[in-house]
Amino acid sequence: MIEIKALTKVYPRGKKKALDSVSLTIPQGIFGLIGRNGAGKTTLMRIVATVMDATGGEIYIDGSPLKDCKDVFRSSLGYLPQSTKLMPRLNIVEFLDYVCIMKGMKEKAERQEKIASVIETVGLVGEEKKRLGKYSGGMLRRAGIAQAIIGDPKVLIIDEPTTGLDPEERLYFLNLLSRIAMERTIIFSTHITADIEHLCKNICILEQGEVKYLGEKEAFVSGIEGKLWTYTGTREDEEQLRRDTVVTSVAYVDGAAEIRYVSNEPIFDAKPATPTLEDAYIHALGGVKR
Amino acid sequence: MLKRSFCRSLFFFPLTLAVLLFSTYIWYPSPLITPPQAAGFADMTELVVAVLLVAYCSLLLPNRYEIELSLTCGVKTAKLAFCRLLPVLIDTLAALYVILAFYRYTPYDGRERPHIPIVIPEHMKAYLAVSLFVTTLFFTALYFFFRVLTRNCYIPVVICMFIEAVFGGLCKDIQAGNVALTRCRFDPFISVYMISDKLPNALAEQYADLSVLSHAWTYNRILFFVLALLLFGAAYLVLRREHLHQGFGE
């Protein structure tokens, strides 16, 4: 279990806090971290991954302060950064071998065995000779996951892995993630709510460096149950709903606006709708932008 | 990691060898190098090696992804950069010495031995080694500092080339006797010939007592060695203080 207490980060030239007294507990399983771009997700991930120091606050790993057990924690940590710039001149085997060496695996036979195993896990068998520079976005993400899980770490930190992937690759990646989640703690950050809709039990919503919501996903979504309505009307109706309620989505079909909004009582001739994580998330952020 | 880096950087040895051979052949097709050319030969090889090293650094310095990855594996950024750059530095300098030896020992058409001993007199070899080492260290530190500061791999190359051009011009002025010799204390390109007995005439006439040159050379090498260390230190502090997570840029 990872406990984060009053974590604060201020960049030297930053005008505001990137993280402002963030406290949360991350249990075993896949933990979803959602937030807009610039909400502080990557900063939080980097601090937990020991890549960067916090300005204040403390992180505890199974009850011990992280600063006292950094090396032990690192040996049980896998990290997939946001950047996909792996090492373009290497092939997957050379790349993973390099990672194994950095992780301190000295036996060549052991390394080869682990490399073959993770390549199979992430479905890159047959692509071993191709250079990483020739890989597609999805393949690069899988190569990234391969480096993160090599050495069988107990904690995985995965930063916005599905950005830029096509739907098929995205689904493949999410399925892969749920496969490797057994007996691991995975911190999964994204700004795409659909990614964690069926993947995470516990979520945290970050907004401008602060925790907006922390808890079970179902409880978060049920917060707007019975308050979400859908209505098809004109642009004038949309303007009124934007003024009087929290609009979570607007789609224009054949000149009409299909509007989903949150309100205690229906306005106009609206029908009740089943809330999704996206509705609850947009509601928590104060409504959809124009 | 170091062993792996050595194996992977072996390619840079023949590459440097080829570039140096080509550039020396373009500039001096005849191995019969006479004293005025000799000075240029040493300058030119220094310059080519410095430019090559800057180019190799651009290619090899770890990117942000590698730095983040290495940090989570408990490998410090400085160790990562050191393991990456040390082998290529050795490969490049080894290629340089092979070229110098080649010019020193290769007979020319069977007619006459090349006059390379003029370029590097036997007793001057240690000076040349120190000279090259300090110049290389200085420009590597300069590149490294601006790379960290600007988060860009092209701007530092332009800055290094500009400074090389400025100092190169100063070097030529000193050689021609147009500028006071004391100025050579502040030029990283002061070459080994400045303290040899094969000075350009303009200088030899100007200074009867050549010990002043020797002192200037010593002062110069100490100055640029200290400057290089300061630049490395400043780069490290910038990296440590605010941008560690960004590493050396993309």
Briefly characterize the structure.
The complex is a heterodimer of chains A (290) and B (250). Chain A has 290 residues and is an alpha/beta fold.
Structure description:
The complex is a heterodimer of chains A (290) and B (250). With 290 residues, chain A is an alpha/beta fold. Chain A has two domains: 2-221, P-loop containing nucleotide triphosphate hydrolases (Rossmann fold), CATH 3.40.50; 223-284. Chain A is 33% helix and 28% strand. Chain A has helices at residues 41-48, 70-75, 92-102, 108-121, 137-149, 167-180, 193-197, 217-222, 235-244, 277-284, and strands at 2-9, 19-26, 29-35, 56-61, 64-65, 77-80, 155-159, 185-190, 202-207, 210-216, 228-233, 246-253, 256-262, 271-272. In chain A, the strands form three sheets. A six-stranded mixed β-sheet of chain A has the order 6-7-8-3-9-10, with helices on both faces. The longest helix of chain A is centred in the middle third of the chain and has 14 residues, at 108-121. Chain A is globular, with a radius of gyration of 21 Å. Chain A starts with a strand and ends in a 6-residue tail after the last helix. The model of chain A has no long low-confidence stretch (mean pLDDT 87). Chain B has 250 residues and is mainly alpha-helical. Chain B has one domain (2-246). Chain B has helices at 2-8, 12-27, 35-60, 64-72, 77-105, 116-119, 125-150, 155-176, 201-206, 211-241. The radius of gyration of chain B is 20 Å and the shape is globular.
